[in-house]
Amino acid sequence: MEALYRDQILDHYRHPRNYGPVDDLPVTAEADNPLCGDRIRMGLRLVAGRIVEVRFHGRGCAVCMAAASLLTEHLRGLDADTVTALEQAARDALVADAGTPLPSPLEGLSALRDHPARHRCLLLPLQALLAALPE
Question: Mind listing the domains of the chain with CATH numbers?
Fold first, then answer.
């Protein structure tokens, strides 16, 4: 199972989904981790408070880029409250017992729970996303 997760991370790192310029989208925000150099910029188009288009751009480790790619595949149709709940569920799962998976779409990264130094890498795309969404 761990090899499957590793393969998923590498696939999304090497072939990120929804990766590209974001400046043409009306809502953008950036989050970075100066300790490791990860920097992710999320771009969104919202209609009636729901995400209808999302892309990301930036650079980061395999975990950060895979998390951003996985997230963007599942964000369409979500509103700010749902994304906020997703971010909180991810934070909670990272400190929960080993039987608690990360929420979909990040469940494939659940093995990272045992690597606290990588938690920030996994959460960084969510932080950029939350910064882009209206409160």
Answer: 2-132 (3.90.1010.10)
